[in-house]
Write a structure and sequence with these properties.
The complex is a heterodimer of chains A (274) and B (309).
Chain A lengths: L4 H18 L1 H24 L7 H8 L3 H12 L5 H5 L3 H4 L6 H35 L6 H25 L3 H27 L7 H4 L2 H4 L9 E9 L2 E9 L4 H25 L3
Antiparallel strand pairs in A: 1-2
Chain B lengths: L4 E10 L2 E11 L4 E5 L6 H8 L7 E6 L2 E2 L4 H4 L3 E4 L11 H11 L4 H14 L15 H13 L5 E5 L7 H16 L3 E6 L2 H7 L2 E6 L2 E7 H4 L3 E7 L5 H9 L3 E8 L2 E6 L3 H13 L4 E6 L3 H9 L6
Parallel strand pairs in B: 3-8, 3-9, 6-7, 7-8
Antiparallel strand pairs in B: 1-2, 1-4, 4-5, 9-10, 11-13, 11-14, 12-13
The chains are: A mainly alpha (274), B alpha/beta (309).
Amino acid sequence: MPPSDLRQMAVVTKYELLKYLRGKRLLIIVVLLAIIFIFDLVVPPTIGSGYDLDPTTFTSGMLNNIGILIVLCATFFGADAIVSEFEQKTGHLLFPNAVKRHVLVLGKFIASTMISVGAVALYYAVTVIAVVVIDGSIAPNTSLSFLYAFAYVFGILAIAYLFSAIFRSSVYSIVLTFFTFFLILPLIDATGGGIAHFKPWFTLTFASGIILNIFQQPYPVDATRTVGTTFANTTRTITVATYYPSVAQALAVIFVYFIIGLILALYITKRREM
Amino acid sequence: MIDAIVTENLSKQFGQFDALKDLNLTVEPGICVGYLGPNGAGKTTTIKILTSLLRPTGGKAFLNGIDVVRNPKEALASVGAVVETPQLYPQLTPAEILSYLGQLRGLDRDVIRERSVAVLNEVKMLDSAHKRMGDFSTGMKQRVAIASALLHDPSILIFDEPTIGLDPRGMIEVRKLIMQLKERDFTIFMSSHLLYEVQEVCDKVAIVDKGTLLVYDTVANLSIAGEVLLTAVEPITAQQCAFVQALPNVRSVKRVATSELLITVEGGLSEQSDLLDHVKSLGIRVAFYRPARSAIEDIYLRLVPEEES
């Protein structure tokens, strides 16, 4: 008799992780992290600018690329996780087994999360070690920031899995995942705040702002200011708004993306035919 | 005894296209069934429904009495399947893929190790057991896929074109392997384009076209009728030819060479034997008397129109 769904899920996770560990994508992530560390830790003393002596500023500065890292992890480890089984026909070997589709998807999702969280944890670990060595103490709220990054990984991977379940070509799902979180949603965030004067609280990328905002004391709140400009004896004023996600709202938004994305990905994969 | 595979009015539509229409098929346990038909006939659709890769639009499919649509996990527990030529994960080795699938199927680690060696040896892939599969040829992948189907010693084996992509030696070896599996009481359901392969390997033959089952019978029953080629020692005269045409159970006679006739015979082995006696009594010295082509080939060509096959 086949084992329980939970046991099968663990098996799927184990072998998905093995595939990731042997793949080139993890190597790319590691190289990217190495480049970030070189720029943050090797370049400043080399060019004589030195390090920031405030642990909070140093930490938030070093973690400035965390969003890009998470988007790349979702693209590499989530965007083609399902579609590749159909497109490359590996599913012909995997699906005709006594295992439910949702078990396969959840097993894969756990593996994608583990490898992505591993990369994020490495980023935080090196940052914390560097800050402790250079500034002598850890920045407050570093652990909270890590938890928010962890939550963001869940949300973004669920959407990547949804794209992966919908599309027939992994190229589409990879490109759409990357551009959605690297370009489209950040563009909505920027347009909302700077021009259209609406708070883009509903986007996942806006919600991810809590990862770095948590380092600011006190936690920043929405603000508008009026700026006056005089040109040819005419004074004009413009109102500039700066929006910040509240922690509770951002976590709720991430949770909704995660739940809806994953449930739809499970449903579509279950219904999908080879 | 529960039938190994049963389909009841199984249907599948892709948009307006009927890929399968009310397929009713019963495969008894322990036999080997060849599933024949031209491209697009519905062979792979049937196999994909049986292996839960497709959902039927109508009807039911049972494996060992379990509904494959309602309970795929239970139904597929005692099934090994190779559908099309599956691609294998390039990062893994054959030993690892067998371990992966073995654990999914609930086998113990020791059993997986032991069975992996046995099945990889059976498909002659033991030497490559620990090489990553990224550079494997289609034939090597097909062998690993067959090994994975055999790993858990299932009672039903479903093969979709098992020799496709293999070189001639590989094809012979896989056919030999299937015949060995037949002797071990597996129920084997295999689709194929190769008629001689089915005739050589299978106990029963099902021919499907345009989603409809045309014939389903034992190879022995289907092998009775057909065309025979008669080769005489001396040239056959026109008079002798006319006499042959007039013999009982002879549907038609066609001269293919001065000393060779192609005779379409109606009836079974006994009628063919009688015909030979009659021919000899006409004074024709027979050098060879043999089927012009395989009986299944004959039936296939009769049932499946030329433009499709």
